[in-house]
Design a protein that fits this description.
By secondary structure, this protein is mostly helical. It has three domains: about 60 residues; about 100 residues; about 110 residues, no CATH class. About 80% of the residues lie in helices and about 0% in strands. It contains ten helices and two strands; from the N terminus they run ααααββαααααα. The protein starts with a helix and ends in a 14-residue tail after the last helix.
Length: about 290
């Protein structure tokens, strides 16, 4: 085609120019027609259908501006409240879920705890059996102690009677330390021996102990006080505070025995008890002596 066009233009220029002009004119006509039709369509816009729709736009816009209406506002408010409540419930559910998970973990631990409880229960049962056995043994020991105490009381009575018999027969020691003046009194030698052997110091230093033991016995007569004072001293003669007295008696050149020394001390302790409880002493004028 290009070859033919070139040939025509080179040999027949006028014809070529006409052809080119026709082509250009065709293009111009085509574009002019297109522009005309476009302008015509633009002038016809909007069409009746679209005009109606455009007229409806302000109404629609107004309705949109008015949204939400009062009714829907209340509904939306209620929905908002429910959403807030749901959020709060969700938090509570999460919290209780954590608690349930914790309880679940603890339930998983229960078998191990049960094993430990069973183990400690067995230990407690074993201790209970041992305590029962100990209690039975303790009952037997208490019986033995009661028997020993009974024997001790009998021995004290025997020693008291022996001491009284020795006094009455003047068989105490080479030096007579007591005199029978109703009641017994310490002689001058007895007072010296009481101080020299440490008996007076021993009683003074431990007077609260001796008085307390006599109070437990609760003697009802002056005679009982004299007898129990001797028993209390014998009962405590194995204590450390008696060691000085025992050493003195062991080395005493006069040969005064420990029994005699304790008897002398009992008279001093008896008088100390009378000082605290003078109401025990009998009325001499009211007692008729045969």
């Amino acid at each position: 085609m290009e070859t033919i066009t070139s040939f025509v233009i080179s040999h027949y220029p006028v014809i070529g120019i006409l052809i080119v002009g026709c082509v250009i004119g065709g293009f111009i006509y085509k574009y002019h027609t297109l522009i005309y039709r476009t302008k015509k369509k633009v002038k016809e816009l909007p069409c009746q259908e679209h005009t109606k729709k455009l007229d409806e736009l302000p109404v629609i816009s107004k309705k949109v501006d008015e949204l939400p209406c009062n009714k829907h506002t209340e509904i939306l408010y209620e929905h908002s409240k429910k959403i807030d409540e749901l959020a709060s419930l969700s938090q509570k559910v999460d919290k209780h879920t954590e608690i349930l998970q914790e309880h679940s973990r603890k339930l998983d631990e229960l078998p191990e705890i049960r094993k430990n409880v069973d183990k400690h229960t067995e230990i407690l049962q074993e201790h209970s059996r041992k305590l029962d056995k100990f209690e039975n043994n303790f009952v037997e020991v208490k019986k033995d102690i009661a028997s020993i105490n009974e024997s001790s009381r009998d021995m004290r009575k025997i020693l008291t009677e022996i001491g009284s018999a020795l006094i009455n027969k003047k068989m105490l020691d080479p030096v007579l330390l007591l005199q029978k003046l109703s009641p017994y009194r310490l002689t001058e030698d007895g007072e010296k021996h009481l101080i020299a052997c440490g008996g007076k110091t021993c009683i003074d230093n431990n007077l609260d102990l001796f008085i307390l033991e006599l109070e437990k016995i609760n003697p009802q007569t002056a005679y009982d006080v004299e007898k129990e004072a001797l028993n209390v001293l014998y009962a405590n003669s194995d204590k450390q505070f008696f060691n000085t007295i025992k050493d003195y008696v062991f080395l005493d050149p006069n040969g005064i025995t420990l029994s005699t020394t304790i008897l002398v001390m009992s008279i001093y302790l008896r008088d100390k008890y009378f000082e605290k409880y003078p109401e025990i002493l009998p009325d001499i004028d009211a007692v008729e002596v045969l």
